[in-house]
Design goal:
There is one protein chain. With 443 residues, the protein is of the alpha/beta class. Helix content is 35%, strand content 23%. It is built from 17 helices and 20 strands. Helix 6 packs across helix 11. The radius of gyration is 22 Å and the shape is globular. It comes from Flavobacterium petrolei.
Amino acid sequence: MRLVILGGGESGVGTAILGKKKGYEVFVSDFGKIKGNYKEILIINGIAWEEEKHTEDFILNADVVMKSPGIPDKSPIVKKLLEKGIAVISEIEFAAPFTDATIIGITGSNGKTTTTMLAHHLLKSAGLNVGLGGNIGKSFAWQIADNKYDSYVLELSSFQLDGIVDFKPHIAIITNISPDHLDRYDYKYENYIDAKFRITMNQTEDDYLIYDADDEAINEWFKTHTTKAKLIPFSLTKIFSEGAYIKNNKMEIKINREEFTMDTEHIALEGKHNMKNAMAATSVAKLMQIRKATIRESLSNFQGVEHRLEKVLKIQNVQYINDSKATNVNATFFALDSMNTPTVWIVGGVDKGNDYNELMSLVREKVKAIICLGVDNKKIIDVFGNVVDMMIEVSNMDDAVRMAQRLSEKGDTVLLSPACASFDLFENYEDRGNQFKQAVKNL
């Protein structure tokens, strides 16, 4: 069997190692450059590879192709493969049949990283032999090749779910759905929503789907679609006989005739959206039979995720917060919603079809100044130009942070929450967040 892998990054190299171990003839092809450390691993393992090109003679004779999530279906080589009827799948689809571990799959427009990390923290703290992967950390395929985990918590992007056929998690979570990546879905929101719900398409009556019952797009989908999985909703406003909810400042979870309660003030994560993430992750812990005392302890000591409402420093009584991971409007909505002080907001980058009007009431209420950090800020200026007293454009992070310091006074917050992708000025959102933290430390 010939396995061709498009993309020589973490998921590509992980799949190559697993494929080789399982007896495939493996070839890795990357249209860009392959990083040195990955090249070394391919060479050590005797895996054939090429970079900065796709040689059709070596690719179009594949039995199966694993495509890295970053490569769109519209790319010429993928189109040719599909025309020839060759299966093009994601790493998750390729790897899953080679493990009988329990799989917990988590998707959503926002909150999926926090929920994934928290669910992993809950299970690991309870002594479970559990791996963390998917869209974060070490490649799922690589872990299956190397390790013997009994369960995996996987963060799954819509791009990874686009490439599944038979993959089915025992426990699936949809944290929420808001418009994102519409450029990859023909600018049709319903296509993106359907991609997220692929997580449950192969689930059976023995599986579970945990979902946000307050989410408009999710509720709309359920009006015309069904899943065989057992449903476990969570909500900030509704109460369930089976599910998770907040009542009288307590988180209450009822699953399989068992109850769990905890005062929300003892949960380390702050903000309404994080209560939802906590409910989703705790529902997983309950399904995995984790003891109540362990769950309480883990919820109270969880550190959160880097670049997600991360408190950096307080300087002259101004709190600097790094929310670089907010790459869409919905994520920034949560960030602004959790601000309790006048805020200097650093925003901008590559716009993925954003509607900033959703932020209008929060900006009026909380934001005193806006610093636009992007190559093209026209849309942000058009929407908020008359709403805030101060609006400034900058083209690098040092200037953004220095301006923020000038515009802020005692008791204010400076919030980096871009609502956009970072590729115009930075390598990725981590690079953007790290530059912000460094610039704050240099003040």
